[in-house]
Design a protein that fits this description.
Layout lengths: L8 H12 L7 H29 L6 H15 L6 H13 L35 H11 L1
Length: 143
């Protein structure tokens, strides 16, 4: 996108950064988002640097204060993975311990029966014994 003459200097810098990175097609709001992010990041760093300046009792803001503020922000925001050699050593120590033996039984592991829903939780109701006389009388009524 071409930068009009009325574009602020900061916006022109953001446009040139996008152009240098090979980004040619973007919405105009992207420039505003980049400017807002940059402003928030820089003001946060400077606020932290002022806190470090007051703690060190410097009269003016020093390069070391700003550098320490940036380093503490990077340490809090971005963490690097541990070195490969350290991970290899930890894996070697962990893998040197044998796995526990597998118990020789089949089927799924279930808790005791009182905690399972497989237990019988009903009773069957038995009918009274039907005598032959009663059976004959009921059959005669039906016919």
């Amino acid at each position: 996108m071409a930068a009009p003459k009325s574009t602020p200097k900061d916006a022109q810098v953001m446009q040139s950064i996008l152009k240098d990175m090979g980004v040619s097609d973007y919405e105009p709001r992207v420039i505003n988002q980049m400017l807002e992010f940059t402003y928030r990041y820089v003001t946060g760093i400077l606020d932290d640097a002022k806190v470090y300046q007051n703690y060190a009792k410097h009269k003016n803001l020093d390069f070391s204060d700003v550098k320490f503020a940036i380093q503490s922000r990077v340490d809090a925001s971005f963490t690097l993975p541990p070195p490969r050699d350290l991970l290899v050593e930890i894996a070697r120590q962990k893998n040197s311990q044998p796995l526990p033996a597998i118990k020789p039984y089949t089927g799924p592991k279930l808790p005791p029966d009182r905690y399972c829903l497989f237990a019988c939780n009903y009773r069957q109701r038995f009918q009274k014994k039907v005598t032959t006389r009663r059976l004959l009388s009921t059959m005669l009524r039906l016919f």
